[in-house]
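Field: COMPLEX_INPUT
Field: COMPONENT_COUNT = two
Field: RESIDUE_TOTAL = 330
Field: MODE = joint
Values follow.
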Amino acid sequence: MKTNVMQETTLSPVITPEAFLAHWQGHRRVTRRVIEAFPEDKLFSFSVGGMRPFAELATEMIRMSSPGIDGILTGKWDRFDYSPAGTTKKELLQQWDEVTEKINTLWPQIPAQRFLENDIAFGQYEGPIYGTLLYFVDNEIHHRGQGYVYLRALGIEPPPFWNRM
Amino acid sequence: MKTNVMQETTLSPVITPEAFLAHWQGHRRVTRRVIEAFPEDKLFSFSVGGMRPFAELATEMIRMSSPGIDGILTGKWDRFDYSPAGTTKKELLQQWDEVTEKINTLWPQIPAQRFLENDIAFGQYEGPIYGTLLYFVDNEIHHRGQGYVYLRALGIEPPPFWNRM
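Field: COMPLEX_OUTPUT
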């Protein structure tokens, strides 16, 4: 009995799989609104301080999360794909929406214990799967925060950060 | 037996309390380096697009995480404190380090089931404790991402985002 209690404490969740999916998709809704908020030309050209335009940052998110969710489910990883995810806002948003659907479809198939397993994401980044997942979301928030500055510098009000609906 | 298995699946962790603390403190190390990277005067004055200078963003993080960890542990929340956390870089970093220590001290005292409880953070924001915690970290990453743009606009190389040591 003692051992069971110990195990339950050690493996108690801060976040369950269901909660993490909802959390991630909430952030993805905000990021989608940031892509939408950019004027077409500025999305692919504007930046501050020599950084990448927001289309390139959104492409990185797509290239990370889509093969990423495959790798998390299957344990098979390709090398990171650096090619552009689209050349228009419409294409980028289409790609975005496809990834959203894909994550919703594959997520429930991930076995519960998988989140605590170690793996080498994209054949390069070793660590527990939950760490890889947190990195996907953190990287999205980080770059989207940059997008907020780009929008403000363009005189455009960004979507509220706290609204994940 | 069936019920137990169901329960374990539902409450299986993506992230355990220990992992979440390590994750949060890893991000706090990066943010500390961003505060340090700003020249003293720019920390309190520079911004892009009419946004808040980084000292104000760091103050928000301090005002969120320090009473935040108290509220998470005790269930008692004060109203959000909007006063500045310091008027020099040294003061800000001192406050930052005190909060880091406080989080390390209080975290192990949080009962495992607390993370899934509902509460009203700062008497205003209702939701599960894990959601409040995610918000603290997400808000830090979001505003720090803005700080990265400020630094780049100042011609300063920001600390690497991926290095959490």
